[in-house]
Amino acid sequence: MLKHVVRTLATTLVLSMGMGVGVAHAQSPQPTTSAPPVTMGQINLTFYVATGAVVQAVLEDLGHKVTVSEGNHPTIYDRLGKGEVDMLVASWLPNAHGKLQAPLASQLVEATTLYEGARLYWAVPAHVPVSAVRSVDDLRKPEVAARMDKDIIGVGPGSGLMVGSGEVMKRYGLEAAGYKLGIAPAPEWAKRLGDATASGAWMVMPLWQPQYLNAVYPVRVLEEPQGVFGTDRAVVVVRKTVWENWPARTRTVLSRVQLGIPVVTELERQIVVDKKPSATVAREWMRANPDIVKAWFAP
Question: pTM, whole model, 2 decimals?
Answer without folding.
Answer: 0.85
